[in-house]
Specification:
The protein is α/β, with parallel strands linked by helices. Helix content is 27%, strand content 30%. A hairpin with a 2-residue loop joins β5 and β6. The C terminus is likely disordered.
Length: 163
């Protein structure tokens, strides 16, 4: 089972903490804080003109290629105003090429068809946030990817010394 962990925390090494919480031998941690990743423009070219390929040519190209082969996706993010911060949101918005522009009903909800395969999703977050809200968001993200929620875990304040 291939697991991709997108660590958006700035220049922090938390690989031991991630390994403890994720617990997958086939895991790759990608530290995105040093990468050149632009915001999604919402141009829909990845759906209309170049299916599955983002029009933005930056470091996210290598990430999306790895996600195509992955079964699990974990996001490691800081929080602001009770939700994932802009770094986490930016990385998640760029996952759109994994989906198709056509919609279908899954579990009674309208969702985009998958371009590749289901992807399970989980969240590790740092800071103060509404745990219940983040769990619901994680379930929705997983549902959008036709997968299951892997859970939402707060990286406790007492553990911040190792970040």
């Amino acid at each position: 089972m291939k697991t991709i962990v997108l660590n958006t925390l700035e220049k922090h090494t938390i690989s031991d903490k991630i390994s403890t919480l994720v617990n997958d031998a086939d895991m790759e941690v990608i530290n995105t804080s040093d990468m050149n990743i632009a915001h999604c423009m919402g141009c829909n070219l990845c759906w209309l003109k170049t299916p599955g390929i983002c029009a933005i040519k930056d470091d996210y190209e290598s990430i999306i290629k790895k996600l195509v082969d992955a079964e699990n996706l974990w996001l490691v993010s800081n929080t602001r105003f009770g939700f994932v911060d802009w770094h986490g949101k930016q990385v998640m918005d760029r996952i759109v090429p994994m989906l198709n522009m056509y919609v279908e009903f899954r579990n009674g909800l309208e969702r985009h068809e998958l371009r590749y395969h289901p992807l399970d999703f989980g969240l590790l977050y740092k800071g103060k946030a509404d745990q219940e809200f983040l769990e619901e968001w994680s379930q929705r993200v997983a549902s959008n990817l036709a997968g299951n929620s892997l859970g939402v875990y707060n990286i406790k304040k007492e553990d911040e010394s190792c970040m």
